[in-house]
Amino acid sequence: MEVRRQIEVSGIVQGVGFRPYVYRLATGRHLKGTIRNTPAGVTIEIQGPAETVQDFVEHLPAEAPPLARITCLAVHDVPCNGDQEFRIVDSHEGEEVRTLISPDVAVCADCLAEMFDLNDRRYRYPFINCTNCGPRFTIIRDIPYDRPSTSMAVFPMCPACLAEYENPLDRRFHAQPNACWECGPRAELWDKSGRKLECRDPIAEAALLLQSGLVVALKGLGGFHLAVDATNPAAVALLRQRKHRVEKPFAVMVPDLQVAEEVCELDGPARTILQSMQRPIVLLKKKPSIISDQVAPFNRYLGIFLPYTPLHYLLLAEGGFKALVMTSGNLSEEPIAIDNREAVNRLDGLADHFLVHNRDILLRCDDSVVRVAGGIARQLRRSRGFVPVPVFLKDNQPSVLAVGGELKNTICLTKDKNAFLSQHIGDLENVESYGFFHEAVEHLERILEIRPEIIAYDLHPNYFSTKWALQQTGVKLVGVQHHHAHIASCMAENHLEGRVIGFALDGTGYGTDGHIWGGEVLIAGYKDFERAAHFEYVPLPGGEAAIREPWRMAVSYLAHHFRPEFLKSELLKFDIPFVRQLNQAKVDLLLRMIEQSVNSPLTSSCGRLFDAVSALVGIRQQVNYEAQAAIELEMAISESEDETGYPLELLPNGPGWIIGTRPLFVSLLNDLGNNLPAAAISRRFHNGLVEGFVQLATLLCNQTTLRRVCLSGGTFHNLYLSQRLETRLSDVGFEVFVQKEVPSGDGGLSLGQALVAAATMQP
Fold this sequence. Notes:
Layout: E1 2-12, H1 18-27, E2 32-38, E3 41-49, H2 50-62, E4 69-78, E5 86-88, H3 109-115, H4 159-166, E6 187-191, E7 196-197, H5 202-211, E8 216-219, E9 224-229, H6 233-243, E10 251-253, H7 257-263, H8 268-275, E11 281-285, E12 301-305, H9 310-319, E13 324-328, H10 340-346, E14 353-357, E15 369-373, E16 376-381, E17 391-402, E18 412-421, H11 431-448, E19 454-458, H12 464-470, E20 476-480, H13 482-493, E21 500-510, E22 516-524, E23 529-535, E24 538-539, H14 544-548, H15 550-562, H16 577-580, H17 584-595, E25 602-603, H18 606-616, H19 628-635, E26 649-653, E27 656-660, H20 662-673, H21 678-704, E28 708-712, H22 719-731, E29 735-737, H23 749-760
Parallel strand pairs: 2-5, 8-14, 10-12, 11-15, 17-19, 19-20, 21-28, 23-27, 28-29
Antiparallel strand pairs: 1-3, 1-4, 2-3, 6-7, 6-14, 8-9, 9-13, 10-13, 11-12, 15-16, 17-18, 21-22, 22-23, 24-25, 26-27
Helix pairs in contact: 5-9, 13-23, 15-17, 15-18, 18-19, 20-21, 21-22
């Protein structure tokens, strides 16, 4: 019996080779019908023997192209008609656009094979791509996603490329960036003033410059990289000096998995993630290798990634490089440069030469960064390769724009069951990043065709994102507490409803009492929260200066617990290097600030507690980048089996608890007095936090019967703390939820803001 079925497919199914895939699937089974793009995805009508049609439907999602992502597939019976073949037909217009856009992904193996094939017409062509790979998100100007709406519009296809583009059986059918030597973009080598250098092969010349120890600015998919030979200490030092990046680790691109194995410890999940089409930077334990120690000083980990553009592959092969530093083309904390002339101006004094091309990047997009935990990649920075794939939510949501926080900013747009997080925008404390924030809002709203009904923002009145939100008119405005947003973000990603115990641990967040929160334990749902426990308040002497100078927090904690007498060296337990090395005049000034409450706001921050301990044990008195003291404290943890942990005390505070740290510091100072090494002290500090949190979760469970625990906030980027706490909580019967799709730090804040705002507006 012949049947005809209509199949509505939603998700990422346009511009990814889905229609030719369906064409081949249908014609291979001698079925008839049509397929067309629609604003919601694609519509297939398939006709033929019932058994064959059913086989087609079953294989449809299972064998989809690598870039396709089906989120909904609805099948309906329709009347048979007189179709004699299967055809790809023109799209309908006028409907609301609901299809999803593919992110930029790495060049595929088929294209690489062609590029290195001496007999192929695209031999060594640095912009080779097909429907399974290449640029997407960063070249889109508008929707629908077709060539006139991309930065490829200025490159008319030659007859050979056009024939591929129009052939449903070709791998390049409707590949919008399709091009070749005859009709596509070209690379050029410029000097530092932006003057084109005449040379036969710009990539080969750039490789020679890198081999000689110079800095080359390289235009990639989502922006410029600054590149140097990672095995050349002088070149790495030169880049650090020019970029004003004193100690923050650089990312390193290696040519293949074999070299990755030589420089880092790899397991199966790490190999899979490194080779994935997203090609994120992966933080992995370093091995002794030829990579300069200056690439990641004072750090056991190295951020490595594999090439993801054809140009990367050509450059690495041409120079025979084992590893290239590939760091964002910007000054510290500014947005990555994307335009050729912009790069020459903004990177003046940083780069010696520029390897550019004439395919415009329409939206900047940094590399994504992940860390492997429990065999799974956890996002530290969600950007290229992952954006704009949405986080899929449990329930439909109204249209909300959440504008994130101040640091590691992202924005989020929700619609139906999709939450679209932007690429990493960065810190909004400089003019360039604030401009990028505006660009990201406008671009996401346009390509997703979402006009928000609600704008969600952080409660901190001085955040630039908050100030922007409060200037908007014609929409509902909802302020969301920072740590509530962290827990809601974890809940949303894990499709949780109801209430949970939430540990929200980070450096800074504006509290409802006007103090600086950061060591928070909440009983939370989306609509509201209760502050069940928090670290005791201590002064933050000097405000922002205390974040840059962790020794200030060490003094603050010692003064808080032991009063100024801690400076008297005759007290043996305080006769420690930290105290002996203090500048008395600076300390006297600091103590007066604390006593008189001058520029010394109160904080419950977990991040500042890490800073204090790091300073006390002699690891870091001043920082050169955010969270450096805490990161290096984690790096110092000994490999011993010592399970000893410094105690915390839980002090009743109305219906909740204060997490007291005096016993922790008493034990720590005693160990310092006994010359226990920093590695052992760091381990005991971490273990003590874990056991204190488990004890607190148990108390709250007894009070509330809640057994679901969410862990969120930047502190949980600490692998030792997060994994140990997850294990211990699970051991005592809790169901533990963490974040993998979005960062647990402030890069995931906007997701939580959106869900809280939506819930708040519900009756």
